[in-house]
Amino acid sequence: MKFSLGANRYGKAECRLVRVVRDGGRHEITDLNVSTSLSGDLEETHLTGDNSAVLPTDSQKNTVYAFAREFGVPSIEEFALRLGGHFVSSQEAVHTANVRMEQYGWNRLGDHSFSRAGDEVRTAGVTVTSDSAWVTGGLTGLTVMNTTDSEFHGFPRDAYTTLPETHDRILATAVDAKWRFSTLDVPWNAAYAMIREALISGFVETYSLSLQQTLFAMGSRVLEKVPEVAEVRLALPNKHHFPVDLSPFGMDNPNEIFLAADRPYGLIEGTVVRDDAPEEGLAWSS
Amino acid sequence: MKFSLGANRYGKAECRLVRVVRDGGRHEITDLNVSTSLSGDLEETHLTGDNSAVLPTDSQKNTVYAFAREFGVPSIEEFALRLGGHFVSSQEAVHTANVRMEQYGWNRLGDHSFSRAGDEVRTAGVTVTSDSAWVTGGLTGLTVMNTTDSEFHGFPRDAYTTLPETHDRILATAVDAKWRFSTLDVPWNAAYAMIREALISGFVETYSLSLQQTLFAMGSRVLEKVPEVAEVRLALPNKHHFPVDLSPFGMDNPNEIFLAADRPYGLIEGTVVRDDAPEEGLAWSS
Amino acid sequence: MKFSLGANRYGKAECRLVRVVRDGGRHEITDLNVSTSLSGDLEETHLTGDNSAVLPTDSQKNTVYAFAREFGVPSIEEFALRLGGHFVSSQEAVHTANVRMEQYGWNRLGDHSFSRAGDEVRTAGVTVTSDSAWVTGGLTGLTVMNTTDSEFHGFPRDAYTTLPETHDRILATAVDAKWRFSTLDVPWNAAYAMIREALISGFVETYSLSLQQTLFAMGSRVLEKVPEVAEVRLALPNKHHFPVDLSPFGMDNPNEIFLAADRPYGLIEGTVVRDDAPEEGLAWSS
Amino acid sequence: MKFSLGANRYGKAECRLVRVVRDGGRHEITDLNVSTSLSGDLEETHLTGDNSAVLPTDSQKNTVYAFAREFGVPSIEEFALRLGGHFVSSQEAVHTANVRMEQYGWNRLGDHSFSRAGDEVRTAGVTVTSDSAWVTGGLTGLTVMNTTDSEFHGFPRDAYTTLPETHDRILATAVDAKWRFSTLDVPWNAAYAMIREALISGFVETYSLSLQQTLFAMGSRVLEKVPEVAEVRLALPNKHHFPVDLSPFGMDNPNEIFLAADRPYGLIEGTVVRDDAPEEGLAWSS
């Protein structure tokens, strides 16, 4: 044969699950989007259509809902670990399970009433094999803005550079963060709260000479605050706010009126990693 | 001629404007999406391409930014009225101006730091003619859920009805509300806050036998609380949460595990109107 | 009572239905998004939660699928008329039914293989009462561009006008068209094809001095070609393509390199109506 | 220091560029979305905010537009290679450049008139270092459907399996494909056309016992037809079409009426790789 099956996996994406826990009249809700993906001895279905190793994606979906009932969802990390462990241990052909989680926040309005907390999403990615497991966490959709304490200058100017230097600009971004845990012994929900707070305070409290500097400060702050995190990966779009030139209308614009642009946007991607971080293994494969 | 130009208008849609007010080190931000639309003696450009009556949409956009600098944005309703009034009074061909506003919320993180407050959007629609003006307000993207105190039964059953009756269900919706003011003498921002609160408390506090009943309660509460509102229009998608049948797996499901469905969805639309409401005039044309 | 229930309706939105007709080995597919909405004697459910007049939206959805099996889908207009007629005639409380249709196009790849034809969507809106019916058709998502034969000049210049005149520009828009039929005796599919062709040729063949002129030409062409159409409503975003200023890099730009902008955009809305068009009645209420 | 800067890069994302080439009255257009990303000696800006190595993303954007004017866009792969080469060779601090391209298709309506060809997007990802370069191509948004010749059975049944076996189902997917070239000596546009055709014919002509089997057939066909491709990566969502149970209404459903579901969906990911494929190097890093 001149070619072969390479890396492959399959699963059910985006199982939308809401769990309501009733403690007397006071309810708690968990709102999830769960995706599973399995890999292992799957060559036959690709080559011949023999599905004897292919646990249906429909069964994976059913497992998600049944496990939520049977075991609850103490945290998305724990729930994902349990799901992943189940697939690896119960299906001989499955050597690796990936589970991806999105959790949507809700604010309490009453004992059994809630309002969606916006675009911010807590995420997790879990990889489980027969003898190991890796957990990453994450956060997306957190849009933040500093209206001052941001500069950008001292950059090289080539033949295509027209950008003026600025000593006071708006800095805004939509945080897309992922972090890798070095252990499975983590108070997952408390850790998430601390990481989120570290990202926000890192953004707010950094006097910024570049979005890269802010990125490094945010990632560093997470590593300082949460010892179980080995590495933080950040992708920060620079959501440009351009001061509008009002001079044609006889007006100045003392950094008051801005056009919020859609595209293009700067995109700053970077990693802050603990010097003694363990090998990443399959952590990022989910 | 066998056919003619009917209703028409033109303008600039979606001018994204962020205004920063600096009171010493403490900043306030206003984040808007502004759309303008003008109508009047515009037949010539349609029939012959003679643009002598067509103030460019680019000029309309410039006006939005310049007016924000010159007059500020005390409320989206006032800002829209000022813009609309300007176009009608300064352009002879323009008889009617529509201005639509979206305002995005931000939470304070620090003196000059903020985070986006989510999908909820405050809206306004203003229509101005040479001798009159109308204002509507609105709110979209407020997603709310009651995990109990909702029933649905007693409905007719035809040949295509398979739905079981339910005496305890999740009720969730994304509130899309518009309201018409009967006067221009309104404390706009305070009124908005009261209307928003009335909509939420109407949803939370209504023991619901149908989403229609909830809708009417929400609209009624607005009219009770805010005398300047003549009419409330609500469009409430019924964001279905279906209890998952876990019996194939030997489990019960005491209203704990739900599948949050995307499509199709119920859509309930209704109006609550004050008995002595003034004529709507052009209020809804924006 | 100080306030009352005003206009209201309810239904099931976005029933996604694919129908496959097999004529031997050669298949035909119809891909629809169907929304129904009923109104009538619905006050009780709003005021007291008495649902005895509220045919469930779930039953409406079931009817959509069952009718597709029983009667087929000769055209979206006929299918909508049949659905609307059913609800009005079978439910005593229902006085008016609205049915909205979206149809997605597929290109043939083989006897039973197809590829989605893109963003273009054929739409219909039908309103049925006990003794009358109205049909509108429509089309959205058809994005077209002329790379020349478009000018824009001769417009008024106020204090906020900075736009230069142009004698050669790109004109691009995403056509959003709706039309009202004056009769129910229409060869629906053939009429749609002719209307679509008229809109496109009206765009392509008009030397344009303003997007308004193009709009009127497009609408007029429909009325010229399809006698059953009483009125055409068009909303045409001006998808701006700005020539990039390359002079800082020592280059000219002879209308070759453009930046395709997202927001803001011009928005031109207009109607062309036949002089002897019948009253619109409830045609636009769907 | 207890932690360090890891992998990082920065650039300008989503530069929307339309190029019009005029050959007399007959025009050709190229519609692109270009993203650049640079990496190298960028530690200082992260640690201290010293931007002396940070060519502004605004300059990168300007370069995109200027190069389109100076060198044209013979293919997205060539254009990306030229851009990447420029950044690496002209900026001492830049060791690696990534360029990502999206190209939107347009159908010809006339000599200088076009209509957007739908959701299908041609992509490319290029990585350039001082002494090497890698090119990947891709295609997204091609939605295809077979209305028969698809089965799914013979799968394992665990405690959570309720799915019935099927011997005739609809198979639909939205193709997301990427491929890696083993050489830079490729007739890029001709290769793209052949790869696209191979993917489509692989989908259409495969009698499918699983979407995995179809995936492998599609990837294999590409490798058979285009020798310059070393590897094909496919992500195929299983866009479920569920036959509607019409039996409650006294009807059968001989695979005629389907509900097109949104979420969840199966997701099949797989790679087909040539046995003598060269090392991937940085090919997938863009």
From TrEMBL, chains A, B, C, D:
The reaction(s) this protein catalyses: urate + O2 + H2O = 5-hydroxyisourate + H2O2
Name this protein carries in UniProt: Uricase
InterPro entries: Uricase (IPR002042)
Function field: Catalyzes the oxidation of uric acid to 5-hydroxyisourate, which is further processed to form (S)-allantoin.
NCBIfam families: urate_oxi (TIGR03383)
Listed EC numbers: 1.7.3.3
Organism: Actinocorallia aurantiaca
Pfam families, per the entry: Uricase
Family: Belongs to the uricase family.
Gene that encodes it: pucL
Pathway: Purine metabolism; urate degradation; (S)-allantoin from urate: step 1/3
Keywords: Oxidoreductase, Purine metabolism
Positions of transmembrane segments: none
